[in-house]
Design a protein that fits this description.
Distance between the termini: 32 Å
Strand content: 5-15%
Number of helices: 5
Helix content: 40-55%
Strand order of the largest sheet: 1-2-3
Largest sheet: 3 strands, antiparallel
Shape: globular
Structural class: alpha+beta
Number of strands: 3
Radius of gyration: 14 Å
Order of helices and strands: EEHHEHHH
Amino acid sequence: MACVYIEDGFTLDAVLEPRHGFPAVKISYRLAHPEKVYAYLRVQKNTGKQFMDAASQMLLEHLVSWDVTDRSGNEVRISEITLRRIAHPVLERMLDAVTGYGPDVREADEKN
């Protein structure tokens, strides 16, 4: 049998591979329910502000923890302010994880 039901408190871990000179990032997250993913994909994101409003809301609801630090090695707390300062390539991978857009789907898309 396949367990694909998302129970309350169901948490996954991921290591987001290094990209564009940024280090790998470890995250724990709760996978977004399909209704949330569809709503996120359909919300108006024509400006940087609209994109970041939608992205930060999605990530605030689903990120449980991460290993992001500042230059001094101090842990950075997950908040709307800190999410708006995460490098774009890393932010995109975080969104991919919580929305279920994994490496297998990404590889298929990159081939097209």
